[in-house]
Amino acid sequence: MMRAALLALALALPGGAALAEPLAPFAAEYRIHVNKIPTPIKATLVLEPAPGEDRYRMLFEADSFLLTNTEESWFEWNDCEPRTERYVHEFQGFGKHRYHHTDFSWSPPRAVNSDSKEGKESFDIPADALDELTMLLRARCVFATGDKEYTATSVYGDRIRQHHFIVIDRETLDTPMGELDTLIVEKRRKGDRKEKRRTLFWVAPAKDYMVVKARHIESTLLRGELIMIDYGN
Question: How far apart are the first and last CA of the chain?
């Protein structure tokens, strides 16, 4: 469940309204709560320029004595169209270790995944495929234009995943950064019973569509939340 709570951060929607301009670097910090109880887990999300024209690096990290989780993406950005070059994810905690290193090529679209257990595997991918960090950058473009739904295809390890997100409501939140108006976005999963397993995100237009709060409900007894505590350029 903690892994699911951490992945809720993958819908952060960075950037600004001028979508055709270069991406603005930023750094955001979060704290994780489980069943409304604060934990010692710190999570950060950073976007910074990389060497080369229109190239960027995005990094998500969570670290504590309970677990370490790192996701990193190198990609090109062209007017709301990210193209991933390399994506790395490593998770260790609760007796589990997961590692994926995926290299992307686009003529034709293919991915080479290096798995800690299975070695390397090369396979075809859709032409619009994203990694699970650049997916959020494309989401920014969708919600900033006023659209209420977003569907994306991502490559994770040797799997191709489908994601569907929909704006379901608005809410004003009292946050460590002050009062913020937010959109509530729900991740829809085929076969889930709505009252049992849900993932929700509160994104703030005034904070460049960043996620200021995320909640994953695994069951009536298990709930995780991400709370933004700092954000800057």
Answer: 31
